[in-house]
Amino acid sequence: MAGSKKPENERRSLDEQMASTARELQSLADAEVVAEAEREIREQLAAEMRQRLSRAVKARAAARKTPTAAQAKEEEIERFSLKFRIQHILLFSSCIILILTGLPLKFPNTHWAAFFFSILGGVPASGLLHRIGATLLIIVGVAHMCYITLTAEGRREFRQLIPKPKDVFDVIGNVRYFLGLAKQGARFGRFSYIEKFDYWAVYWGMVVMITSGLMLWFEDATMRLLPKFAVDMAREAHSDEALLATLAIIVWHFYNVHLSPDCFPMSKTWLTGKITKSKMMSHHPLEYEEMIAASLVEDGNGKIPNPTGGK
Amino acid sequence: MKPGRLLLVCLIVTVFAGPALAADNAKCLMCHGAPGLSKRLPDGSVISLHIDDQAFRQSVHGARLCTDCHIDMRGQTFPHKRSAVPVKCSGCHFMGNPMGAPNIGPMTEYADSVHGRAVKRGDKDAPRCKNCHGEHDIRAHTDPRSSIYRANIPDTCGKCHSDAGMARKHKIPVKRPYQLYEKSVHGKAVSGQGLIAAAVCTDCHGGHTIKAAADPMSTVNKKHIPGTCGRCHKKILEEYKKSIHGRAVAQGVKDAPVCTNCHGEHGIERPTEPGSSVYPTHVVATCSKCHESAGVQKRFGLPAHRLKTYIGSYHGVANKFGETTVANCATCHGSHGILPSSDPHSMTNKRNLPRTCGKCHPGAGENFAKGSVHLEPSEKRDKGVYWVRIFYTVFIVGLIGSFALYILLDIFSRVRKRGGRAR
Predict the structure, then answer these.
(1) Domain count of chain B?
(2) Could you tell me which residue, B178 or A274, shows the higher pLDDT?
(3) Contact criterion met (CB < 8 Å) for B414 and A261
(4) Cβ atoms B106, B95 nearer than 8 A
(5) Residue B138 is part of which domain span?
(6) HSE (CB half, 13 Å, CA atoms) of A15?
(7) How far is A117 from chain B (nearest CA, A)?
(8) Running along chain B, 423 residues long, what does each successive block of 10 average in pLDDT?
């Protein structure tokens, strides 16, 4: 028996040996494969999270009718950094100066133009203010160029602002939604097409206004190189683009950040940089979902934050 | 003095002085030297009959006898029984008079004047010699105390020509020329600075010969104005004569402007005074009086929309709001010597534009002449500006229209949803 028992023992130990060897081999095996597998699992988890979150967000958005006191105190998330906000403040300050001192020149036959020049004491004073505003605008433009090239934050924001085919589909989707043809409006990421439009409109406007403005500011120098009709065209473009920009700001931007029932009388994000969780979920759901998912991937602790705004 | 006492005094004088003094002025002054001597007229008004002996002696006629002028009083017994008749100055002041009295040329000069004719018509308001020259106190026009001394002429004429009622009554177009003149560059020079070479009423209107402006013989009739002003402003007259306006006036074009059409007349001010019609901010309106008239534009083939296209420029806007350094009509086109741009000597001729613009824009070159100044964008001219404008019109209407539509849809959908929920 012992004879038969022995080989069996031997075999078992051999098996065990083989298994341990296999385990050893396994443990020695490429750690990357394990990590890969783990990441796959986590991503699956994140995707699942995202789906659940998106359902929760939709439910939350649907439930959101009148803000309650609890919601007023709800958690806020930083949307715009200080650098971002300072650029916006400088930009609109210069634009307000430029519009106030520029439009009376475009509409000189109105009472308000006469009133404006009477309180300011004439066109030269207004011209000086306009040039101060212009200088500020150029500074903001240059600063922004530095921001989107030299800072990591700026580069990240700029990438988010690049128009994508999704933006076109979002417009179509939202219009369909407004018309009652779709049950669901477009779901935005960090920047909606509304914000992207505002951004690129300023880009276009800055190029036209600064170029034509400098031509008019230094008209004698300009006319050393270009004929008078080029300066006249610059003046026409400057004047018309100014009107376009003013109307775009008043109609489009003001509606979206002031007059729209979503934010009347004013969205405070430009000042505080903060956005409430609920607003983020309704206005930038994709960004919110990504943010949560990213935080899950990073901690890997699987703790799901309450998407309905609880602490 | 009461008439009764007056009679008494005259009686005493007559008795004591006697006919021996008849030829002497003292005899008249016995009564007329009394400061209170006066007479009540049938209409109830009281006139003074007092003669200031001192003033009379200092007057140009101081050495004359009363009866030299009051010839109807010669040989009268005193007190004279009938009133003196008005003195006829032409008794002495005629051409070639033996007394050596300054003559006023043929009496027809005054008789033919607007005042002389009115007197002939029996107009009681019309001035006779005495109204301007005075009566017993007449002084030479060189005497600063004379009513017709240059510096005093405005006040003398102003006795009547400061009254709007008088002007209305006699249909004189300018109602208060005296007040206007006193504030004018000429009036201020004369009364303020004592520059008596500056124009007074008679320099432009004439004295004895004065005629209504509508009279073709008047020195202030439109066709004579350049010559009248040019008597002092010689160089400007020469320049004006060569200008398109001056040539037109010389050809008898009634619409063409003379000095006064741009500068005004009685109220004329220095171009640097904000009240002047040719002050930088007023030039535009002054030129536009004619150049914006469709009739004038049509008749003389002048380009239209000059004002609109100027106001549309930066120059125009700045000028409108009181900026005096920007170009106005006269800055580029000139003033007295203005010529059409087709004339090679014109400041606005293409060849001369760099120089004209260069007055304000240092270093202005040929590029200033490439393009128009009075922009009228259309498919034919100022095309560049036209297409920029078209582009932006389409752009603005399209974009803002889309925005408005989008916002309306947004609101519409919100309202519908709210309504849906309410139901």
Answers:
(1) 4
(2) B178
(3) yes
(4) yes
(5) 102-220
(6) 6
(7) 7
(8) 52 46 72 88 87 90 89 82 86 82 73 92 91 91 93 94 92 92 95 93 93 93 94 96 95 93 94 94 94 94 92 92 93 95 94 94 91 91 94 96 92 81 47
The residue that leads in pLDDT, A304 or A251, is: A251
Under 8 Å CB pairs connecting chains A and B tally to: 112
The pTM (predicted TM-score) of the whole model is: 0.75
B82 and B190 fall within a common domain:
no
Residue B63 and residue B117 in one domain: no
Q: How far does CA A95 lie from the centroid of its chain? A: 21
Residue B311 contacts A, CB cutoff 8 Å: yes
- Please state which of the ranges A66-75, A161-170, B120-129, B314-323 shows the lowest mean pLDDT: A66-75
Contact list, B377 vs chain A (CB under 8 Å): 236
Contact B396 A252 (CB under 8 A): no
Contact check, Cβ <8 Å, B384/A230? yes
| Structure confidence at residue A278 (pLDDT) | 81
Selecting from A105, A223, A232 the residue whose C-beta is nearest the C-beta of B382 gives A232
Residue A31 pLDDT exceeds 50: yes
Alpha helices in B33-139 (DSSP H): 53-58, 66-69, 108-111, 114-121, 129-133
Closest CA to B110 of B209, B14, B43: B209
How many structural domains comprise chain A? 1
Q: What is the pLDDT of residue A114?
A: 92
Domain that residue A158 falls in: 38-299
Which residue among A123, A219, A226 places its CB closest to the CB of B323? A123
Residue of B nearest to A241 (CA): B392
Question: What is the spatial distance between Cα A117 and Cα A128, in angstroms, rounded to a whole number?
Answer: 13
B18 and B146 co-located in one domain: no
Q: Over 70: is that where the pLDDT of A68 sits?
A: no
- Measured between CA atoms, how close is A295 to chain B, in angstroms? 34
| Contact call for residues A216 and A106 (beta carbons, < 8 A) | no
Which residues of chain A have a CB within 8 Å of the CB of B284? none
Say if B227 falls within a structural domain: no
CATH of the domain at A282: 1.20.950.20
Per-residue pLDDT at A182: 84
Contact B416 A251 (CB under 8 A): no
Whether residue B286 sits in one domain with residue B262: yes
Query: Both tokens of residue A123?
Result: 């066109």
| Rounded-to-integer distance, Cα B5 and Cα B13, Å | 12
Separation in Å, CA of A228 to nearest CA in chain B: 5
Could you tell me if residue B33 is inside a domain? Answer: yes
Its ipTM equals 0.75
